[in-house]
Every structure is written in structure tokens, then in C-alpha cells.
Design a protein that fits this description.
Length: about 280
């Protein structure tokens, strides 16, 4: 083994003559991940890191090199891959004649898929690049609703328009409360979502109330992942069926999509968790 270590330090090309497996990029990722086509089945060699021990070699992906290339070449800001989706590393133990391979989980890997939001630039005709033109395409209900406060009400249907807001109505910060959409149209909507996170009536009001930080997503009662939202006074969007997901959830008439509040950004004055706008993007024809 000592000879192999010296060879690696002096001559990487000679090292490659030995018994190391020819790893593919796919073999390091969560099994639910479908890499962009140009990376499928690609040899991982340009992205590999080797950690040399006295009687072992640990082979892992250089996450930063790979993810920079993925971001630059293949992945949009909405629904992009995350380093947390890199699931495996491999330890090769030398027994004197050959390597015995052990597959281990990477530090930082999470079994729960995570979908991260991206900021949306506003345009004329809609809050963001995908104007929501089908308020009749979904119905929405919630586990609780805050009672009217003066001239403002906080009913669930307020989320379908950017001029009003919904708030949960329980004691505490609303963790565990949920919003559930049912698709009522046969048109393709439901995978990508836009949100005004918080009470966007004014920046002061937004600061005063809670905003959602993390929420669990269920499609027809099946957990598919967790959405991480930004703490920003503007619109944002996320995708719960990104193109890297091998088994896409089906969004059709009757599909129910439930979002359960898991964590919040705390308001400066009130303990109510508020959403000003929350819709699936798409087109009702």
C-alpha cells in the first residue's frame, strides 16, 4: 500500500493503472436523482477527491467543482440540484492483494429531498415571469384561519391574489398548520409555485409578522420533500417536480398538494405566520 501512496503523489497517471474502480457520476447521487443528460453515465474521474489512509482510500466527489459546472451548464435557478443530493462516498480497504469496497453515506446528506426557492423578477401582467391566469384552476383550504382584524380578513382564498393575505389562526407561530391545494382544472398546473412570503402590505407589516422558512410537501398524502423559502420582501418561486427528479409526481384534476409549516422566520411584533400570495404557475387555456 505504501508503494501505491508514493505513486499517487508522484504520478497520478500511474496510480490509475491499479485496481481502482471506474466510478460514474450517477453512483454518488441519491437514487431518486436523474442527472442532466450530458452527465448521465459520465465517468466521475474529473471530479473525484482521494483521501489516502494507511490501508484505505476514500473516494468522493469534489462537490464544489461539479456543482459549479452543473449550475453553469445544465440547471436553472428554480429547482436546481443541491450538494445535499450527493449521497455516497466509497472506501477502498487494501487487504494486501486487492481492494474491498464499502459504500458509505456522505456527511450532510439528508434523506428528505429539499427544494429551494429563487427570487422572481416582477413584470407587467403578473407577480413574476409566469402570470397566474387560472384562479379557477385550483381550490385552497387551510387547517386554520386568523379571525378578521379590523378591515382585513385572512381567508385561505386570499392567497390566490396578490392584493390580500392569509394567516394561520392558532396559538403560537403556526408550525404544523397546513395549506392544501386541489387541482380543479385538466390543464397542466401544479409543479412550479410562486409565493409572496409574509404580509406584503408594507415592509413594516412584513417585518412585524412571521414568514415561512421551511415546509413539508405532500402530494396526495405522500411526502415528496421539503421546501426552503427565502426571507425576502418580494416574490419567490420553487419547483416541487424539478427535472432532476426521476419519479415525477402526477398533477392532474383532483390532485391534492399539501404544504405543512415546519419552521418560520420570526416577526418583530406578532406571532402570526402570513402568506400574501401562493399559487401554482401554469396556464388554464
Amino acid at each position: 500500500m505504501g508503494v501505491l501512496v508514493q505513486d499517487k503523489r508522484r504520478n497520478p497517471d500511474r496510480w490509475n493503472q491499479y485496481l481502482l474502480p471506474d466510478y460514474k457520476l450517477d453512483s454518488f447521487f441519491d437514487e431518486r436523482v436523474l442527472l442532466p443528460q450530458e452527465f448521465q453515465g459520465k465517468t466521475a474521474k474529473p471530479y473525484l477527491d482521494y483521501e489516502l489512509g494507511l490501508s484505505s482510500i476514500t473516494v468522493s466527489l469534489n462537490k464544489w467543482v461539479l456543482m459549479r459546472q452543473l449550475e453553469g451548464d445544465s440547471v436553472s435557478a428554480s429547482g436546481g440540484l443541491d450538494v445535499a443530493l450527493i449521497k455516497y462516498k466509497y472506501v477502498l480497504n487494501w487487504n494486501g492483494d486487492d481492494f474491498k469496497e464499502t459504500q458509505l453515506k456522505e456527511a450532510g446528506y439528508n434523506d428528505m429531498l429539499m427544494f429551494t426557492s429563487a427570487i422572481v423578477e416582477q413584470i407587467d401582467g403578473g407577480p413574476g415571469p409566469h402570470e397566474f391566469d387560472c384562479p379557477h384552476g385550483v381550490s385552497v383550504r387551510t387547517s386554520s384561519t386568523l379571525n378578521p382584524q379590523g378591515k382585513y380578513d385572512y381567508k385561505a382564498s386570499n392567497m390566490l391574489t396578490p392584493i390580500a393575505a392569509w394567516s394561520e389562526g392558532v396559538e403560537g407561530d403556526g408550525v404544523g398548520e397546513w395549506i392544501e391545494f386541489t387541482i380543479t382544472s385538466d390543464f397542466h398546473i401544479g409543479d412550479s409555485w410562486q409565493m409572496g412570503n409574509g404580509n406584503n402590505r408594507s415592509k413594516d407589516v412584513w417585518n412585524a409578522n412571521n414568514r415561512i422558512k421551511k415546509m413539508k410537501v405532500l402530494v396526495d398524502d405522500k411526502v415528496i420533500g421539503v421546501v426552503i423559502l427565502a426571507n425576502v420582501f418580494t416574490f419567490q418561486e420553487f419547483n416541487i417536480a424539478p427535472n432532476w427528479l426521476k419519479e415525477q409526481p402526477a398533477f392532474r384534476k383532483g390532485t391534492k398538494i399539501r404544504f405543512i409549516i415546519d419552521e418560520v422566520y420570526k416577526g418583530s411584533k406578532y406571532n402570526d405566520t402570513v402568506i400574501s400570495y401562493f399559487v401554482p404557475t401554469g396556464n388554464c387555456g
